[in-house]
Amino acid sequence: MASYRITLLAGDGIGPEITAIAVKLLERVAQQFNFQLDFDHQPVGGDAIEKFGEPLPASTLAACKASDAVLLAAIGAPKYDNLPRQQRPESGLLALRAGLDLFANLRPVAIVPALIDASSLRPEVISGVDLLVVRELTGGIYFGQPKGRVQLENGEERGFNTMTYSSSEVDRIAKVAFDLARQRRGVLCSVDKANVLDVSQLWRDRVNEMAGAYPDVNLSHMYVDNAAMQLVRQPRQFDVLLTSNLFGDILSDEAAMLTGSIGMLPSASLGSSGPGLFEPVHGSAPDIAGQDLANPLAMVLSAAMMLRIGLKQDAAALALENAVSAVLEQGFRTGDLMADGCTKLACSAMGEELLRALA
Ligand SMILES: NC(=O)C1=CN([C@@H]2O[C@H](COP(=O)(O)OP(=O)(O)OC[C@H]3O[C@@H](n4cnc5c(N)ncnc54)[C@H](O)[C@@H]3O)[C@@H](O)[C@H]2O)C=CC1
Ligand SMILES: CC(C)CC(=O)C(=O)O
Ligand SMILES: [Mg+2]
């Protein structure tokens, strides 16, 4: 029987609540599809700060590296917001992505038919939307040097970060996007700010150069401000959206609302070798943490991505995705998606319904 070692990073806020559900569902599909999952819980973010005094202990990173796949819920809490930057939960997540060399973050945005009325946009705008954000994840302004804060002679303080990309960093993420576009509808839109930023002009030049090797992919470029507008104007025009770390972070939260809730969007963070990290797009939702209110579906769909991409257990992945569609078709909703005629469920009760749907 195939056996896989999974590192679980429950993290902070709603993280432990949604992780508990994902684990139960993964155990069930493993049983149903005849493979074994060995879970290893490790601390990250605020949880690790409490236990080890740092957001990414060496033991957590080592466990992740030694596993077949990593499933992360979310990190962050307001109580850490005034710590020095390197000691904050978010720095732990960035260090984890860098430590595993996970340069490609895939964020699929597909409309579940049962949620066609759940978006803040009209059904005719979002119907049929099926796009994939390919976000560069280990470069750009989140990692660029120099950065910091300095005191100026005139008494002012200045804060600064640097957005950098090298040609090889652009090439490797562009290749991921071109390859995925080829497997999908063959339409790739690269999003940048090349009208203003040198780093974006380099990005655009490299993407254009790569296009020669992909004559079957229809490549276009769009400035990020326009892309933000087009995503809510006519989202069906997009197939694969290729973009940088910062722009992808922002655009994917915006795109989440096409599906009805940020609580619906999963992601996969991948490198060229080694284990992938599978993580919902949302954060730790401190405003609803510990209240059994969270939507666990983004986490469950991230677990499905882990099964498909990380473990090549396609049938089990599909079973999880079908369970998500089934509970939504039955009208079960957590508070973020609640609508007239639906049944409102707590996070844990949604987990029970998902288990029932799998049975
Ligand atoms: N990957 C990660 O671990 C991420 C961590 N963060 C961290 O999370 C903390 C909170 O950040 P925010 O900007 O508030 O973003 P957030 O995504 O945690 O929350 C934004 C809003 O969406 C709601 N929400 C998020 N996930 C939900 C879910 N599964 N079900 C129902 N509602 C949900 C929240 O209640 C909140 O109103 C911060 O410390 C931030 O740094 C933020 C984004 C990603
Ligand atoms: C919390 C940040 C480190 C990242 C983030 O918002 C994201 O990856 O979506
Ligand atoms: Mg984000």
Automatic annotation (TrEMBL):
Substrate binds at R97, R107, R135, D225. Keywords: Amino-acid biosynthesis, Branched-chain amino acid biosynthesis, Cytoplasm, Leucine biosynthesis, Magnesium, Manganese, Metal-binding, NAD, Oxidoreductase. Its main location: cytoplasm. Residues 5-354 form the Isopropylmalate dehydrogenase-like domain. Binds 1 Mg(2+) or Mn(2+) ion per subunit. Its cofactor is Mn(2+); Mg(2+). It comes from the Bacteria. It catalyses: (2R,3S)-3-isopropylmalate + NAD(+) = 4-methyl-2-oxopentanoate + CO2 + NADH. It is found in: Cytoplasm. InterPro entries: IsoCit/isopropylmalate_DH_CS, IsoPropMal-DH-like_dom, Isopropylmalate_DH. Pathway: Amino-acid biosynthesis; L-leucine biosynthesis; L-leucine from 3-methyl-2-oxobutanoate: step 3/4. Signal peptide: none annotated. NAD(+) binds at G283, S284, A285, P286, D287, I288, A289, G290, Q291, D292, L293, A294, N295. PANTHER family: 3-ISOPROPYLMALATE DEHYDROGENASE. HAMAP family: LeuB_type1 (MF_01033). Belongs to the isocitrate and isopropylmalate dehydrogenases family. LeuB type 1 subfamily. Catalyzes the oxidation of 3-carboxy-2-hydroxy-4-methylpentanoate (3-isopropylmalate) to 3-carboxy-4-methyl-2-oxopentanoate. The product decarboxylates to 4-methyl-2 oxopentanoate. This is 3-isopropylmalate dehydrogenase. It comes from Synechococcus lacustris str. Tous. The gene is leuB.
